[in-house]
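Researcher: Let's do a round of design. I'm pasting the structure tokens now; please hold your answer until I've finished.
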């Protein structure tokens, strides 16, 4: 039997998503649960990065994962093999999650024994950027094969993200991709964005990512 649930999430009835997001953030803070909203295009490496994060932090904290997809349970199946608590959310065709939909997933996951919840959002660089999920921090992945012009084409995603992971740097020799250009464009849109080049495949940069997460989780639990 699979050790994860699949939830068909209901469309939100709330009109004011920002209000729902603030309420959820307050609830998570009281509960001392840090929620990372991880966004990217399909195939940029979200699930592979989630596996790396779990591997790095699982001995220090209890981790729970929400896998959001239009259909399938491929990612929940992969992540459940790590032993982390996982829920697969089906969005019924919607290309994003809002705060109420995220809450439906967290309620099912149960956050009382979760210190760090990771939401793998639906693969898409547009819609997820438009909806506050109630997360503690927003992270995005841009992978090398997608090209270094993406901050110019999808500025909102780079503007609302606290962390930009440049993934698949093991493949950089095969693509015309300038990390310097991405850093320049992204910082222009969002001067405070933290940028970490990684390879979820080889593990390069994962230490720095884990340290960033440890720092943010500590801050979240202190204030
Ligand atoms: N070369 C290389 N391949 C990678 C890296 N990270 C992920 N991949 C590969 O990229 C493909 C997609 O990775 P996933 O982790 O499934 O990507 P995803 O963003 O979760 O995809 P969706 O959930 O479908 O949106 C897989 O074949 C991975 O093995 C990396 O750092 N380097
Ligand atoms: Mg995935």
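Researcher: That's everything. Go ahead.
Model: Designed sequence:
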């Amino acid at each position: 039997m699979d050790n994860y649930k699949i939830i068909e999430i209901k469309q939100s009835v709330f009109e004011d998503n920002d209000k729902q997001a603030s309420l959820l953030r307050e609830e998570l803070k009281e509960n001392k649960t840090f929620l990372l909203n991880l966004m990217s295009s399909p195939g940029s490496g979200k699930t592979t990065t989630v596996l790396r994060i779990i591997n790095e932090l699982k001995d220090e904290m209890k981790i729970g994962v929400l896998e959001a997809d239009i259909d399938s349970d491929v990612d929940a199946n992969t992540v459940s093999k790590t032993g982390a608590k996982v829920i697969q959310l089906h969005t019924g065709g919607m290309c994003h999650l809002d705060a109420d939909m995220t809450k439906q997933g967290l309620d099912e996951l149960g956050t009382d024994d979760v210190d760090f919840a990771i939401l793998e959002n639906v693969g898409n660089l547009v819609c997820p950027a438009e909806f506050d999920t109630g997360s503690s921090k927003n992270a995005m992945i841009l992978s090398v094969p997608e090209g270094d012009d993406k901050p110019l084409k999808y500025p909102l995603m780079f503007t609302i993200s606290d962390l930009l992971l440049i993934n698949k740097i093991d493949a950089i020799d095969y693509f015309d991709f300038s990390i310097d250009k991405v850093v320049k464009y992204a910082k222009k849109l969002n001067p405070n964005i933290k940028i970490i080049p990684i390879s979820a495949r080889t593990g390069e940069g994962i230490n720095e990512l884990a340290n960033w997460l440890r720092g943010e989780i500590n801050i979240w639990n202190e204030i």
